[in-house]
């Protein structure tokens, strides 16, 4: 690992899940982003790769299964350190108390957290800034903002189907992004009300207000989300496709650069300013 710069303008970045696909992509994005230096590249506690090095661009980065930043005042967060989490739900819960103790802002890109885990994350956000999202791409951020307005224009009688496609190794379904799309469409209403995950057999007529969510897992698909709107005599499809994980990595870095200047609180990508 290369030396860490002492400039106060540089954010010391910790990447959890550094050996995974998204973690490595974040490390590669950092290599060409002057806003950051790598403070630690973390893997799981029982990961045999801890202590080894991986090639990232034209350099080598050492993996570690532990990280202890310099102790800060319990009343003030470290202003220029951030952790980006691209692990799994268990990994998030391992690093969450570390970030809380040392007042380190946390960007959570992992998905699949249950209700109790989300509750713990929200409690930690009373002490540190936390930004949690399933998708950091700029295009998806814009889409989530526009969907409520789009749906208001179509009317309440519109049928909605969400179809998400990801690679065969993805472990949760539906995707976190599909759930964020659902939340954007339904607002503050119960997101579990009349949601159908696929259909089979004699399902009967479609209920008014029902939303279908369908998950496809195949090959190395990075991520596609299509929202189909059905009206009388016509349909509209809005689709977002990520061609590479670079879009997510760059978006996560933008989120971290913004988050280090925010007060404690729970944020999503809706809170992020859009590019000018």
Tell me what you see in this structure.
The chain is an alpha/beta fold. The protein folds into 2 domains: 11-136 and 246-271, Rossmann fold (3-Layer(aba) Sandwich), CATH 3.40.50.720; 138-241, 2-Layer Sandwich (Dihydrodipicolinate Reductase, domain 2). The protein has 6 helices and 13 strands. The protein has helices at residues 21-30, 89-102, 115-124, 138-154, 176-186, 246-259, and strands at 11-16, 36-42, 53-56, 59-64, 81-85, 106-108, 129-132, 159-166, 195-197, 211-217, 224-231, 234-241, 265-267. Strands 3-4-2-1-5-6-7-13 form an 8-stranded mixed beta sheet, sandwiched between helices. It has a 5-stranded mixed beta sheet with strand order 9-10-8-11-12, with helices on one face. A hairpin with a 2-residue loop joins strand 11 and strand 12. The longest helix is centred in the middle third of the chain and has 17 residues, at 138-154. Residues 1-7 and 72-78 have low confidence and may be disordered.
């Amino acid at each position: 690992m290369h030396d860490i710069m002492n400039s106060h303008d540089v954010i010391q970045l910790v990447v959890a899940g550094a050996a995974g696909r998204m973690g490595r992509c974040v490390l590669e994005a950092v290599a060409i982003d002057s806003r950051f230096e790598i403070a630690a590249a973390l893997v799981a506690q029982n990961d045999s790769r801890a202590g080894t090095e991986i090639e990232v661009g034209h350099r080598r980065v050492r993996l570690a299964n532990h990280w202890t930043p310099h102790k800060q005042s319990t009343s003030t967060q470290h202003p220029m350190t951030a952790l980006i989490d691209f692990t799994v739900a268990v990994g998030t819960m391992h690093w969450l108390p570390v970030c809380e103790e040392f007042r380190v802002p946390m960007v959570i890109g992992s998905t699949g957290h249950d209700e109790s885990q989300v509750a713990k994350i929200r409690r930690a956000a009373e002490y540190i800034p936390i930004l949690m999202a399933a998708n950091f791409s700029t295009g998806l951020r814009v889409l989530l903002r526009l969907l409520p307005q789009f749906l208001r224009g179509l009317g309440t009688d519109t049928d909605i189907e969400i179809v998400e496609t990801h690679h065969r190794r993805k472990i949760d379904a539906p995707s976190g992004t599909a759930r964020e799309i659902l939340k954007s469409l339904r607002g503050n209403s119960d997101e579990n009300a009349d949601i159908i995950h696929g259909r089979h057999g004699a399902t009967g007529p479609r209920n008014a207000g029902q939303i279908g969510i369908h998950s496809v897992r195949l090959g190395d698909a990075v991520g596609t989300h299509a929202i189909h709107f059905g009206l009388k005599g016509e349909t509209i499809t809005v689709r977002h496709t990520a061609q590479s994980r670079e879009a997510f990595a760059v978006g996560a870095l933008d989120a971290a650069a913004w988050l280090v200047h925010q007060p404690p609180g729970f944020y999503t990508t809706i809170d992020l300013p859009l590019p000018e």
